[in-house]
Amino acid sequence: MQPRVSDAPANEVTLGIDFGTSNSAAALIDRDGKLQVIALDDSRPEMPTALFFASETHTVAFGSQAMQAYLSSTEGRLLRSLKSLLGSRLMDEYTVVNNQSIRFFDIVVLFFKELKRRCEIHVGHSIERAMLGRPVHFVDDNPERDALAQDTLARAAREAGFTHISFQLEPIAAAFDYEQRIATETTALVVDIGGGTSDFTVIRLNPERSRDADRSGDILATTGVHIGGTDFDRLLDLSTVMPLLGYKHIGTGGRPVPNSIFFDLSTWHLIHQTTTRKALHFARELWTDYVDQTLHARLMEVIEEHHGHRILAGVEVAKIACSVSGESAVVNLDFLSTPASASLDASITAPGMREALSQPVAQVVACALQCIEASGLASVDVMYLTGGSSALQPLVEALQAALPGTALLHGDRFGGVAAGLAYAGFLVPSDP
């Protein structure tokens, strides 16, 4: 069922923005009441939440072009997973790109400006209203930092040129998108597994109420946990690639090599910290802790040649391939030149992935069950999966095992939340 047609001026349409840890998407309801999921990155609705600052040209690339520039060894700096910094002091700290200091907050503003520009080109007019998605918890168990994260996101959108800004929880937005495709009332557990968070809502959906602005009576419970696709990437990187650089290597004195450098190298938004002067000095001095100096040489090559993002991108590709096929998938490390690197075997297997991800998967499933319990229902009709990481096979299997009698449906992994935000934004009353 299409929502009502707005009689607002064209520039008063509301853009639904799913600003994600790994990918972002946008959608709107046009003046004819039709949903437009905007192709932000060539023909794809999802746009990697990434920026690349090219050193030679002093230009900035966004989305897949940013990733391509980095992976083609263009000289410069890649930044990803900026959403993970929201609510932390790092957002107001400065980093160096192209020999200039810039706040991480201002980098987020740059991304929002580019997203807004692409959407305006698509629709042919300016857009001033935005309905922003937010996780149930930006920061677990810290209401002050959670409020700061939302405020920071609103400030970034405002500085990018949006003048009217609203928020909706991402799993509720996904539910509104799903509601457009049902014919009768349904109780649903919406499972939104993103790059940085896993969010849940139990909600009553009914196409007859899809045009109601106030749906608070239908929202029975929401829960969330700060675990998502980037955490899965980190754990798989630590279990498959980082041992080849010395992680868990028993060094001199029978002690493992200090592991902080490996955790930073395996975390999208912390990789840049491994190339600071202090971190480089620390890494170089680690040679005294290594029995196998080849491992240390490989670690230094990865840091000095800025291969951290390249490795994590390879882990992400192998994770997806293994999840889809159930077969072993190799993490490409051909770009390493350290002696003996040519014969490296870094593979992700289905059993290995289940083992490496068992703890976070269990936490995600527990949070889903808590949402059903908090709703007061004994069961739900449908479990609706959305979000970029919702197709991860170990997670799907665990959810099915935990809720064996519940129908499982997969939604639009990348565009569903943005579409739901567009529907929610369409029903927000215009200012008098």
Write a concise keyword list for the protein shown above.
single chain, 432 residues, alpha+beta, Nucleotidyltransferase, domain 5, 2 domains, six-stranded mixed sheet, 18 strands
Major β-sheet annotation: 6 strands, mixed
When the domains are counted, the total is: 2
Helix content: 25-40%
Indicate the CATH class of the largest domain. Answer: Alpha Beta
- Gross morphology is globular
> What CATH architecture of the largest domain do you see?
2-Layer Sandwich
DSSP, total strands: 18
Low-pLDDT segments, ≥5 res: 1-10
Q: In CATH, what is the homologous superfamily of the largest domain?
A: ATPase, nucleotide binding domain
Provide a short characterization of the protein structure:
Helix 4 (about 170-180) crosses helix 13, helix 5 packs across helix 9 and helix 11 (about 360-375) packs parallel to helix 12 (about 395-400). It contains 13 helices and 18 strands. By secondary structure, the protein is α+β, with helices and mostly antiparallel strands.
